[in-house]
């Protein structure tokens, strides 16, 4: 079912933030728990919880933290974390983007939530934003502890690198990146430091590459949303790990658990959301927010509020 609605959001509870950590494949992962006062004061009842996973190159304090705060204000326990090798989390080499590890991070975040006495282990959901929309779908496909999965501006990291944000990138671009990654594997074997790929172009280059790239540059590289710990480079060894990943390959395994996908009508990446949605089985729902771009759903409240309203309804119904 496709919807496009806007319901005002009412904040219901105060929220306490607590730093925490858990392990994923032996790597210490830095996290923040957003705990509503209703969960802290409940004597017997446990609460639903949501893992909110950040975009590629992002950190837990950016858009993932914003959504976690807003969901916690509605009574959900929310957890954000930095991906392994990035942010405050451990792991070497720094800047590695390993899709298999990112999926494992989400599963281990679910495990960690299950250790909290305030959390009902039968009422855990996942919200994935941008690349974590893809990672979250892959995690939910195999991990049935995830009772409901939602995405905002979903992207598959492999499709992004291979085809570009708009799906029209020359295939030779990715072939060139693979050749660089292959050469770097030999350099690492010789004991040399892994080479890195800059994530962001200059402002002039970003403008020339179109509105989608420029808005991403604005969010990550200006006061609009930048954070000192967000990833500015990825190791070249990330590229061949990304090459054979397909975030949506097993989306059909999520059913009969519910899937909600939210995307802006102006998102250049909408084609990825629609590919995943088409391959998914019922129950599923697609919400298109009129006028929103991919990145606008990171921080623009006029678009986040209808998305949040839908998310609150979705998780309330499906984590009941």
Protein model, in words:
With 320 residues, the protein is an alpha/beta fold. It has one domain (2-162, 245-318): Alpha/Beta hydrolase fold, catalytic domain (Rossmann fold), CATH 3.40.50. It is built from 12 helices and 11 strands. A 9-stranded mixed sheet has the order 1-11-10-7-6-4-5-3-2, with helices on both faces. It has a two-stranded antiparallel sheet with strand order 8-9. A hairpin with a 2-residue loop joins strand 2 and strand 3 (27-36). The longest helix has 19 residues, at 171-189. Residues 1-10 have low confidence and may be disordered.
Based on CA inertia axes, which overall geometry fits? globular
Tell me roughly what share of residues is in helical segments: 25-40%
Uncertain segments: 1-10
Characterize the biggest β-sheet: 9 strands, mixed
Mean pLDDT value: 94
| N- to C-terminal distance | 21 Å
Count every beta strand, where a strand is a DSSP E run of 2 or more residues: 11
Tell me the structural class: alpha/beta
In N-to-C order, the SSE pattern is: EEEHEHEHEHEHHEHHEHEHEHH
Tally of alpha and pi helices:
12
User: How big a fraction of the residues is strand?
Assistant: 15-25%
In what order do the strands lie side by side in the largest sheet?
A: 1-11-10-7-6-4-5-3-2
Q: What's the gyration radius in Å?
A: 19 Å
> The CATH topology is what?
Rossmann fold
- The CATH architecture assignment turns out to be 3-Layer(aba) Sandwich
Q: Into how many domains do the coordinates divide? A: 1
Any idea of the CATH class? Alpha Beta
CATH superfamily: Alpha/Beta hydrolase fold, catalytic domain
């Amino acid at each position: 079912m496709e919807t496009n609605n806007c319901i005002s959001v009412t904040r219901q509870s105060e929220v306490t933030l607590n730093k925490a950590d858990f392990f994923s494949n032996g790597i210490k992962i830095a996290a923040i728990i957003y705990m509503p006062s209703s969960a802290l004061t409940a004597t017997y009842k446990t609460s639903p919880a949501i893992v909110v996973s950040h975009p590629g190159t992002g950190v837990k304090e950016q858009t993932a933290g914003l959504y976690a705060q807003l969901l916690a204000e509605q009574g959900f326990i929310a957890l954000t974390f930095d991906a392994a090798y990035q942010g405050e989390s451990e792991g070497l080499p720094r800047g590695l983007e390993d899709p298999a590890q990112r999926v494992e991070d989400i599963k281990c975040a679910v495990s960690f939530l299950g250790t909290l006495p305030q959390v009902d282990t039968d009422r855990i959901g996942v919200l994935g934003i941008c690349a974590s929309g893809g990672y979250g779908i892959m995690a939910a496909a195999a991990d049935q502890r995830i009772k409901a999965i939602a995405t905002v501006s979903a992207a598959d990291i492999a499709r992004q690198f291979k085809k570009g944000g708009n799906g029209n990138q020359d295939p030779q671009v990715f072939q060139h990146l693979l050749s660089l990654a292959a050469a770097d594997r030999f350099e690492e074997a010789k004991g040399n430091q892994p080479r890195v790929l800059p994530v962001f172009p200059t402002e002039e280059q970003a403008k020339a590459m179109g509105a989608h790239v420029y808005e991403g540059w604005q969010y990550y590289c200006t006061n609009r949303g930048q954070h000192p710990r967000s990833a500015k480079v990825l190791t070249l060894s990330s590229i061949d790990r990304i090459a054979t990943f397909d975030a949506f390959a097993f989306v059909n395994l999520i059913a009969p658990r519910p899937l909600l996908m939210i995307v802006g009508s102006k998102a250049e990446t909408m084609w990825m959301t629609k590919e995943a949605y088409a391959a998914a089985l019922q129950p599923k729902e697609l919400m298109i927010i009129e006028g929103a771009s991919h990145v606008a759903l990171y921080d623009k409240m006029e678009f986040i509020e209808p998305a949040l309203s839908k998310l609150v309804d979705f998780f309330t119904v499906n984590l009941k």
